[in-house]
Prior knowledge:
This protein is of the alpha+beta class. It has helices at 2-16, 123-132, and strands at 43-60, 69-81, 90-96, 106-108, 113-119, 135-141, 147-153. Helices cover 16% and strands 39% of the residues. A 7-stranded mixed beta sheet has the order 4-5-3-2-1-6-7, covered by helices on one side. A hairpin with an 8-residue loop joins strand 1 (43-60) and strand 2 (69-81).
Amino acid sequence: MSLLIRSFAALLLTLSLPLSAAPMHSQFLPPDDLTLRDAEPEQQQLLQVTDYSVVVGAQRQSNQQPIPVTSSLMIRLKGKSLNKGATITQVLVSFDGESKSLKKPLYDEKSKTLNLFYPLAQYRVVIDLLRNDTVYVQFLSYANGHIWADLHTGSVRAR
């Protein structure tokens, strides 16, 4: 009888596994109208943010004329990886108020750092998320060159 119970338990476990290896937080992805995400991701990094710090920097290169002064605004996120095989250890979120287009998300395997770029207008939204909710960082890359990265909360009940 124990063999029958073990076989039944194995069958239930097999049936409970997902049929495809869809991204863990796929419910937070926008519609894929252009079918850019029609295949399984080659790489997925999912991090739950546990700590963050805001870095406001200034740089002045004195060897150039006229002297350019640049100022950066960045949020450094740290947390714990949530998916098997994830190697991400930190996320640097940079904000740009001057460029016409943003740089694409970039994951550096050597430093285990994900770099995200947002317009300066999104700074307040990101800070509000970090202060009020559990925040996740998701990074997906596909064989066709498509890259998706986001910051999102879990499901939150409306008040």
